[in-house]
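Homework help board

Subject: predicted structure for assignment chain

Our instructor gave us this sequence and asked us to write out the predicted structure in token form, then describe one feature. I got the tokens but I'm not sure how to describe them. Can anyone check?
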Amino acid sequence: MGRNAVAEALRAKVPVTALYVAIGIEADERVTEAVRLAGNRGISLVEVSRAELDRMTGGLPNQGLAAQVPPFRYVDLPDVLAVADEASAPALLVAVDGVTDPRNIGALIRSAVAFGAHGLVVPARRAAGVTAAAWRTSAGTAARLPVAQVTNLVRALRDAKEAGLFVVGLDGRGTTSLDDLEVADQPLMVVLGSEGSGLSRLVTETCDLTVAIPMAGPAESLNASVAGAVTLAEIARVRRAG
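My token output:
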């Protein structure tokens, strides 16, 4: 739901089965593009009342536009590792540990796409996945990033290490400052924990090193999506400079 998310999903050729448009909305370029793309692909276009669209989307903000799509399709971890390995730039993957707010997942996906990451890894249990809320927060960029859902995050980190990636855990008490991350230009997997409990013990022990974001103010921590954006932006800066 939402104009950016729907237009992006259609651009990325997500298998949309129906496009819902609220009667009487003021059409902007995103609505116009969505209707055109849907028409070109033979997708059903359904006009509904604003009240009906609000009911269909659970009362969440929809800006008068929504698309019906199948459940998000996760990929296997080896496929994500293969995408990263075949990229022209050094591999850059993101993993999350205990992040339960789907809006953080969506915002993290958006940052990952913006700063050149090749994929995301999420645990199947005790963590948020790519839900409708995550998709909306990602502004549709979830269509452009492969996401693997794994049953065992520690095993996934070990698989990444075997594939030649340095596994870097983000931790407020990390042994290395983000300013001094010497492996930023190497193949990386960045692991983010929840704002409250951070990384679990086993995940921390599996990481090759832990990194802290230097902060000048009194804030003790950043939420996962903000911390991820800061870290990915710094890695991207180092890689551009190199």
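Reply (TA_rk): Your tokens look well-formed. For the description, you could write something like this. The longest helix spans residues 224-241. That's the kind of observation they're looking for.
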